[in-house]
Write a structure and sequence with these properties.
Low-confidence stretches: 8-14, 16-26, 195-207
Largest sheet: 10 strands, antiparallel
Shape: flat
Structural class: alpha+beta
Strand content: 35-45%
Radius of gyration: 26 Å
Distance between the termini: 11 Å
Oligomer: single chain
């Protein structure tokens, strides 16, 4: 009975450590938890985003049509631009997933700058009638996605402290219109390092081994009848 208990403890300990190891996010990404507040300071939504662990380095051409336009934007690792890989929120209209996940917008970049008070930068395509030559726009200090036309105007915008989202226009029924804004906070998610995971596995192994030795030292005659 004691041997069985020791073996079960060892197996469950290793199972827990393994589950923790495999359920953790990829260590190549950094995650932040988001909280959104309205202008009165009331919590109205939550979300999360992730960015690459290492800073971006490269040259981005700010024109899609390179034959007629060539405006390079050079970013070095020392600039501390970390490329955003995902963004989700449950606030109405506040999303950048279209930019991040649309394969036709591979020129889009959202950057997080944790060592700068302004925190944000982005390179996004222009999608209004005023765009000429399919030019991209580098926007310092904000994330933005939207279109602005008389028949429909929709957008999502965030800077270092504030957010806003809106939908309106002649082609949108009045009851569907909205315009919301407020403040937000981002908290870096704590993820155990690989050393911590292996430490948990080591504890499970040692604990199971000690219990197994104790079980082996008990003779059958010593066990309760």
């Amino acid at each position: 009975m004691t041997k069985l208990l020791a073996n079960l403890t060892l197996a469950s300990g290793m199972g827990l450590a393994s589950a923790l190891a495999f359920s953790l996010p990829a260590q190549s990404l950094v995650f932040y938890d988001l909280h959104f507040f309205d202008t009165e300071g009331q919590l109205v939504g939550t979300g999360e985003f992730s960015h690459e662990k290492h800073p971006f380095a490269g040259v981005i051409n700010l024109c899609v049509n390179q034959l007629s336009c060539n405006i390079p934007l050079e970013i070095s690792a020392s600039d501390q631009f970390f490329q955003v890989t995902s963004f989700v929120s449950d606030v109405r209209g506040l999303s950048f997933e279209f930019l991040l996940n649309n394969p036709n917008n591979h020129q889009t970049y959202l950057f997080w700058r944790p060592f700068d008070d302004n925190l944000m930068s982005s390179v996004v395509p222009c999608r209004t009638r005023d765009c000429i030559g399919r030019r991209l726009f580098f926007m310092d200090n904000i994330w933005y996605d939207g279109i602005g036309r008389s028949e429909v105007s929709a957008g999502a915008l965030m800077n270092a402290t504030q957010w806003s989202s809106w939908l309106r226009g002649s082609r949108i029924p009045d009851f569907a219109w909205y315009s919301e804004s407020g403040t937000w906070t981002a908290t870096k998610r704590s993820v155990p390092e690989p050393g911590t995971i292996f430490g948990l596995m080591a504890v499970a192994l040692v604990t199971g081994s000690l219990l197994k030795r104790k079980g082996d030292s008990i003779k059958p005659d010593d066990e309760p009848k």
